Amino acid sequence: MEESVVILHLSSTTSADVAAELDHLRDKFGSLTLGKVLTLIVVARNNESIEAALDAADAASLSHPCRIIAYLPDTQADVNEASLGAELRVGGEAGVSEIIILRPLGGAGANPTSLLLPLLLPEAPVVVWWSEDAPANPAEHPIGRLANRRITNTIAHTNPVPLLKDLAKNYTPGDTDMSWAGCTLWRGNLAAMLDEPPFEAVESARVQGSLEHASTYLMASWLALRLDAPVTLEDSQGYGLEKITLSRASGDLVLHRKVGETTAEMIRPGRKTQRVRLETRTQENRLTEELQRMVPDISYGHVLEAFGNGIIPGC
């Protein structure tokens, strides 16, 4: 039998009252914190986007049981109209997690740290995910200071490439962006192609993808860093990455995913063209991957630093 969801709405409340209500639910339904491995704070733009973000977080919680705290301040309210609304969801759609939605109104959102601290799981890592808009310096943001890991999402940002440049300039270990997880399958397939004879040096590389998508720049920077070879960018009409060409003395290695397809052509000189799985990763997939590590992603840090230092000419 499918478990029903318990939803409680609290108005004009405090974080202490929310924590007390969680204790009450724990007494009524059992230990809600049992097996929880982290606290995930989700910062969203509006009510519509918070539900999409919670769907992704809920799916990720199947692999990483957590307490999810959605933080949705009303920035349009009068600063003098300070109050806190909250919603608690347990069971059913909350999956293996418990969901807390905080809606500070006006001045109540002036100090997010004081609202969030009482609700963090004790002695557990904290991850903050800005599902759309993100600060230029996540580690110095009041919510970012609470976290071991800080996840941005340039894919959903209105100005993704300028934001990526800001993130590079202000990088702090523990930062990451979901566009990096969007490169994972591409990087794995390219590494497999290079791990076959002939083991020749790559003389140059070309990355074709949307120049409005951070994954294109991160992939190009990763290649330039790993191959120590010049990399050029070429714009495409698709979403994200489309085609990568690695030029060697014996010919080109090509990985090409046409727009809208979930597989890609793997082309190698003297070999039959092979089709490999290479779907565009969902938000749930990318978030799940990012929650696998609670330590800084050193590879991402090196690639982002290289991008910020201009490893790709003209970027």
UniProtKB/TrEMBL annotation:
It comes from the Bacteria. Residues 173-304 form the Glucose-6-phosphate dehydrogenase assembly protein OpcA C-terminal domain. Residues 57-168 form the Glucose-6-phosphate dehydrogenase assembly protein OpcA N-terminal domain. This is Glucose-6-phosphate dehydrogenase. It comes from Flaviflexus ciconiae.
